[in-house]
Design brief:
By secondary structure, this protein is α/β, with parallel strands linked by helices. The chain has 6 helices and 7 strands, in the order H-E-E-H-E-E-H-E-H-H-E-H-E. The radius of gyration is 16 Å and the shape is globular.
């Protein structure tokens, strides 16, 4: 990230932690086995990985403050996401990237996909959560570090072009940020996830796996 991103655009926000705790409880814990190795790319404050219950948890970010944010037991790797040499081949069951790929030039994203593929175990998947330009175009560049534009269609096509199969696509998974009108109360997050109508849904969720 450029400049002091964490004190300008991405400040500490307790609401974000509450939302992620609810997302774990009502969504992600049903998809991640206790025996899994989980990799969180662009982990930031550790809001996702700190809630994960799994055999092994790894967080990667270029932010030097990463190690101070992750929970005990989470392995913190400070470095670029397109260089995962510290992670062994075939050792990751569940790779996750939240609000990351829009910050990467496309050549860096492609290199990152190569590294993720190398680290994934047989049957391993990559889950991506990020702004969907189709629905968030008005606010998309309010974040000055956004350098790439993706919709649920273009991101899926990019992944297919680079050897990935698309498992799931949710064009409107969540509101754009925790600063939206979505309350952080767990029961309301659960209700939002279950609702077939998501008028504030501007973040997409895609799941992919390496093509055979």
């Amino acid at each position: 990230m450029s400049g002091d991103y964490h004190n300008s655009r991405l400040e500490m926000d307790t609401r974000r932690g509450s939302v992620w705790a609810a997302l774990w409880r009502y969504f992600f814990r049903h998809r991640i086995r206790d025996s899994a190795c989980v990799l969180d790319l662009g982990a930031g404050y550790g809001d996702f990985i700190n809630n994960v219950v799994a055999r092994r948890r790894i967080a990667v970010d270029t932010w030097p403050g990463l190690a101070q944010q992750v929970a005990p037991g989470v392995e913190a790797i400070v470095g670029p996401v397109d260089d995962l040499h510290a992670i062994a081949d075939g050792s990751v069951d569940y790779a996750f990237a939240s609000n990351l790929f829009e910050h990467l030039p496309q050549d860096v994203l492609v290199a990152t996909l190569v590294e993720i593929r190398r680290t994934l175990a047989p049957g391993g998947t990559l889950t991506m959560l990020q702004p969907n330009y189709r629905y968030a175009y008005r606010e998309y560049f309010d974040d000055y570090t956004h350098v790439a534009v993706y919709s649920h269609i273009s991101l899926a096509d990019l992944l297919r072009a680079h050897g990935w199969d698309i498992v799931e696509v949710h064009p409107r998974f969540l509101p754009l940020t925790v600063k939206s009108r979505l309350p952080a109360w767990p029961i309301l997050v659960a209700a939002y996830l279950r609702s077939p109508i998501k008028p504030m849904g501007k973040q997409m969720l895609l799941v992919a796996r390496p093509a055979r």
